[in-house]
Every structure is written in C-alpha cells, then in structure tokens.
Design goal:
This protein is mainly beta and 668 residues long. The chain folds into 3 domains: 101 residues, Roll (Nuclear Transport Factor 2, Chain: A); 111 residues, Nuclear Transport Factor 2, Chain: A; 291 residues, Distorted Sandwich (Beta-galactosidase, Chain A, domain 5).
C-alpha cells in the first residue's frame, strides 16, 4: 500500500494493491525513458516546417500582421497512450510512435476556431490528424490564450483611447500612456475576459512603468471589448477611476476639466530605493554580517545521483521527466528499486481566485495553464534558485513563436541536506552513559523548475527521499496582485502601501497522480481514526478515551475551521481521453470548459481493483500584508503532498544506505 499524505490535511489516504510480483522488475534503460522526453529543437522545427508546408492549412507566421490569419501557436510532445507505453516498457512490445501535439489558431476562416493536431511520426513528420475533445466539441476562437500580437494590438487600442486623459494622468501621476518616452504607463490584464462564454472583454489595470510596476496602480481601470478578430472594431466600454465608473474616456476627461472629479494625486516615485525594488534598505539591529556568503551546499565526494537523458536515478529511485510548455513538470514511470509506483505524477493547473472592490479585482480568477505556465520557465540563478553544485538543464518551447526558443537553465537537479536527520536515536542507560547512538543524515534529491506567470513566481519541486517517500511541493513568491487603494477595498485585503491594496486571494494547485502499485489493478481506501471510550482494565470504574487522532473529540474544544475546497482528493478510473484535468482554454472560457473535471466524477464507475488516478488539490489562503513588499517570501507560502509507503516494504528501505553513523561505548 502507498499513502497519499496531504501536507495541509489531517486525513491519511491510500491506494491499496494486490499481491506484489516476485521477483521485482528492473528499471528500464534510458533509451526506453526517452519515449517521454520533450521534443528536441530539431523535432520542434520539423513539425513547424511540415505544417507550414501544408497548403490546406494556410498557415502564416505568428508575429505581425492581423489576427484574421491561421497560425501555429503551440507545439509540444504528445505522450504515448498508457497502454502502448506499458506494453513497450513491461512486455517488450513495439516502441510507441513519437508524435507532437500542435495547436493551430484558425483566424482566417468564416467561423474562426482553434484546432489541435497529432503530428508524426517524428523525427520526420509526414501526416497529421485532428485531436478530439470529449463529446467532439470544438474550441471557440474566443477561448484561445492571448498572444504577443493581440497584446500589441490591445496596446494600440488603449493608447488611442487614453489620449483624452493625457492631462489627468500627467497631472495626477506624472506618467501617461500615449506618446511617452520615459514616464510611461503600462497595464496588467485580468481574466476571465467577460461574464459569459463567447465574450472577450478584458479589464486593464493601468500602472506606472517602473521597477515592480505591479505595485504601482494609478487608480484607473479600463474595460476593453476585443472579441472581434478585427481590432478596428475594438472599443473601450467602461472605466473605473478612484472609486467611480464612467462610460467613456471623454466623460472622465470632461469631469476632470470641469473640476468635479475626485482626483487621486500620487507623489513622484524616488529614483533610488523604490519600495517595489530589491535594493537594500534599512538595517538589522544585531549587526551580524549580511554582506558575506551564507551556508552553501557542497558535494565533497561527487554526485550521488545519475542523469542520462531524461532518466534520473538516485538511491532506490528512478524516473523519467519532461517539462510541458502547457503546464509544467511531468514525471513518468516512477520506480523504487525497479518496481513501478506511479505511471505519472504531474502538475495540472494553478489557480488564484481574488476578491476586491475595483472591477478588475472582483473579476480576477487566474488559471495559469491558460497563460503558458510551463513555457515561462526563465533562467534560474546559480546559488539562489538552486545550489551552485546543481545540474542545470535547458528547455526549448515553441509557444507563440515562429520557432523553438531556448530557455537556459530552466530545470535544476541537486541533492539537498534537509537539516534534520532522516532518523536517529540516542539510547541512554539513564546513568550518565549510553548503549548506542545511531543516525542517518537527512537528504533528498530535488527536481526543480520555476514559472513566472507575470507577477507571480512559482517554484515547483519534486523531492525524493531515501526511505521511499516522494514529496511534491510548490512555493509561491514574486509580486502580489495589487489594485488601487480605496477605503471600501479594506474589506477585501490589506493596505500594503499608501495607494496600494493587496487583494485577498486563494491559491489552488492541482496534480495528477496515476499510481500503479504492484500493477495497474488498485483500489482506494481511507483510514479513519475514531474516538472510543473503554473501561480501564487496571482501574475499574475509570474510563479511558483513546484520543489518538489530531483532532479533539466533540466537546473537548473548538472544532477546526472548514477547508474551502471542493475536493482535496478525487479518485477516478484511468481513461485515455482524460489525460488532464484542465486545459489552456479554461482561462478564457471557464463557463463552458473544454475539459470538465466534474465530468470525470459523474459516471459512477467502480474504483475497486482498477487502474486508478488520484487528483490532488492543495492550496492556501493568502491575506496580503506589508511584509509582502517588495515580494511575497517563500516561508509559510508552500503547499504540497507526500507519497509514503504503508506496509509496502518489510522495513525502512533507507537501511540500504551505507552512510549511517553508529556509535557504541568502548568495551571496558
């Protein structure tokens, strides 16, 4: 049995399996793991070249030109079907054909849409076929993710619309939007884009374009309708300024010229030590040094892990991994001592739901797969994002680009001292001496990447421990999503600076955990701890409450607060047409999602002795505070879950480590 332990939950959950096979299988060679490897730059280019050459698709370059054209938006690996992969890995079957997933925006058609294709075989593609969503639904053009081209057109629309507001913005902020060179305004856009399926209306928060501009709203929010593929038909529909709504920029400008507008005047930002910057300021009262290096990770006798291609080995662990442009890290064929524990463990979605008084704040419900969460894996800094000793790997994405783009040092792998023993015991003789001491240093192998989704940075980790425990963890950092402060906004957040409100929000992260414990025939169990009053056998008349749980019994104290999530854990049968719980289209059409996770649960299938998938949601409520300036810090802002063995091994498997410390008294 393997346990699924949620770090924020009290329930202990498990996947039970039948008898274990004997003897244990051995891990596959690295060439077998390559069926899960990301597409190489050559493969990405080959897919693009092939599709661009097909006259029936009529594809044009992504950059420049109008939106009313057909473009290739995304190319990434299309993983093999599970049954084909297992036949190859376990039964010596044929190697699955290597294919790509290609997303095409058909904007030049009479009825624009988005279509996904399977393209192969790689490395020399010669055919393509459409990929179908459940129910045969097509992707509406309005559900497509944003592109750089659409942002450029949105910028032009906003620049023209802001011309009447030049004097108001210059006088109140010292910055303006059109024809600016140094004192420029920028914007952050909000999603979902509208209130119903088929709409594409975005609220834009105007901000001073300085370092950390996310924390510099100027009190103006603008609603732009950009649903039509022709930007000449785009229009500003509403404005919000300092607590009031206006129907047009001209109306707002007239109110300012008439002197009837409540103007929010902002001081000139300083040239140095801006509050939103990382520049050092202030002092620590102890005077201990901070200008010298702190503790560092070292490998005194070399690396204790092995990396061959996308196949990673460490102690008893082995796994294949990839970095999806659409959603991030994905592990395959996770094994311990050669025995498969999970076919897939992967990040699915990261969501942030906000509250607020301004229209942009109350509309904000970010679903980060729709923002290319796996493609914004920017270069990590040695010694800060990962230790200097780490192995760094590049990633190549073809996402809203006219070819593969290299992201240097997008992934790192390193062994990390945990700072606490994996296990230890001091066996006292209670007479000033001891019988023995034994301990094993705590270490874990970390597989890490980051996603910078505009203001927020996510640090994604998978940790492998020597005792057969795996941890999935995400840290949230970066800039908070902030809006302009008004007294009414205090109900929805904290005033973190003079004109800045940090908006209350909830982070939710969804994972897929396709456990295959001793084969694919698994069952789901929960272990409940109940309270029982029994007679004390050694003291008649006394009663002994067996309170072994972490919660108080009713009447023993206050009940814990409810956790506001729909599902901490959902378990379904594996289906090849349910590979993900979300999609890149959910952000811009959450009302009629192409992938409906609720639909996974409504078929009322048996989950006894079946191929099961656990879908795990972790998260936390973030109430912003002044200490989130300039950035949210990682301590206290991390969530995740553990996979732990439960009577799976005969003993702790880390006893195979040859590095314990055992101390015994000298013989008299």
């Amino acid at each position: 049995m393997w346990l699924l332990r949620l770090t924020w939950a009290l329930a202990v959950l498990g996947i039970a399996a039948g008898s274990r096979p004997s003897p244990k299988p051995t891990a596959p060679p690295p060439e077998q793991a390559s069926i899960f490897a990301d597409l190489s730059p050559a493969e990405l280019r080959a897919v693009r070249t092939f599709l661009m050459s097909r006259p029936e698709l009529g594809l044009s370059p992504s950059r420049g030109g109008p939106l009313t054209k057909n473009t290739l938006f995304l190319v990434e690996l299309l993983p093999p079907k599970k049954r084909l992969a297992l036949r190859y890995l376990d039964q010596g079957g044929p190697r699955p054909q290597r294919q790509a997933r290609a997303v095409v925006f058909f904007g030049a058609q009479a009825e624009p849409n988005v279509t996904e294709f399977a393209v192969g075989p790689l490395p020399r593609p010669s055919s393509y076929r459409p990929l179908r969503f459940k129910g045969g639904r097509t992707v509406p053009f309005t559900a497509r993710p944003m592109t750089q081209l659409e942002y450029e057109l949105l910028h032009r629309t906003l620049a023209a619309a802001m011309e009447p507001l030049y004097r108001l913005l210059r006088d109140s902020t010292g910055f303006w939007y059109h024809n600016c060179s140094r004192h420029c305004l920028t914007f952050s856009d909000i999603a979902p884009r509208g209130l119903a399926s088929g709409e594409r209306r975005s609220w834009l928060i105007l901000q001073r374009f300085v370092e950390g501009f996310f924390l510099h709203p100027v009190g103006l929010e603008v609603l732009v309708d950009h649903q039509d593929p022709d930007p000449r038909r785009w229009a500003v529909q509403r404005l919000w300024y300092n607590g009031q709504y206006f129907s047009s920029p001209q109306e707002l400008a007239d109110r300012y010229e008439q002197g009837t507008l409540a103007v929010a005047r902002l001081p000139e930002p300083p040239s140095r030590q801006l509050f939103s910057s990382y520049e050092p300021r202030g002092t620590f009262t102890t005077g201990t040094p901070t200008e010298v290096h702190g503790a560092k990770v070292c490998e005194p006798q070399g690396r204790r892990y092995r990396l061959r291609g996308n196949w990673l080995e460490y102690g008893g662990w082995s796994l294949a991994f990839r970095l999806r442009s659409s959603a991030g890290l994905q592990l395959f064929d996770l094994r311990f001592n050669g025995e498969r524990l999970a076919y897939e463990v992967s990040v699915q979605e990261a969501i942030a739901f906000y509250g607020g008084h301004t229209p942009a704040a109350m509309q904000t419900k970010y679903m980060d797969a729709g923002w290319g969460m796996g493609s914004v894996t920017y270069e990590m800094a040695r010694g800060i994002d990962c230790p200097e000793t780490a192995t760094y790997l590049d990633a190549h994405h073809l996402y809203d680009a006219d070819g593969p783009v290299r992201f240097s040092r997008a992934i790192c792998i390193f062994e990390l001292p945990t700072g606490v023993p994996l296990r230890r015991h001091f066996d006292s003789d209670f007479q000033g001496g001891f019988h023995f001491y034994a301990g094993l240093e705590g270490q874990a192998l970390v597989l890490r990447t980051t996603s910078t989704v505009y203001n927020y940075d996510y640090i994604w980790d998978f940790l492998l421990y020597p005792n057969g425990v795996m941890e999935a963890k995400v840290h949230a950092t970066g800039f908070i999503h902030a809006t302009f402060y008004t007294p009414q906004g205090r109900r929805y957040g904290s005033r973190v600076h003079s004109h800045v409100l940090g908006n209350l929000h909830t982070h939710l992260v969804h994972y897929k955990v396709d456990l295959d414990i001793a084969g694919t025939g698994n069952s789901f169990e929960t272990m409940d701890v109940r309270f029982e009053n029994i007679s004390n056998p050694w003291s008649p008349g006394a009663r002994r409450p067996h309170n072994v749980g972490l919660l108080l019994a009713p009447g023993d104290g206050p009940d814990p607060a409810p956790v506001p999530h729909r599902y901490h854990l959902a378990v379904t049968r594996h289906h090849e047409n349910e590979p993900t719980s979300s999609s890149i289209y959910a952000q811009n059409d959450p009302w009629e999602p192409l992938v409906s996770f609720e639909g996974f649960l409504r078929n009322n299938e048996s989950i006894e002795d079946q191929d099961l998938v656990a879908w795990v949601t972790v998260g936390f409520l973030h109430v912003p505070h002044a200490e989130d300036i300039p950035n949210t810090a990682t301590p206290g802002n991390a969530v995740g879950f553990f996979l732990r063995p439960f009577n799976f091994f005969d003993e702790d498997p880390s006893v195979a480590s040859r590095s314990p410390v055992i101390v015994r008294p000298l013989a008299p």
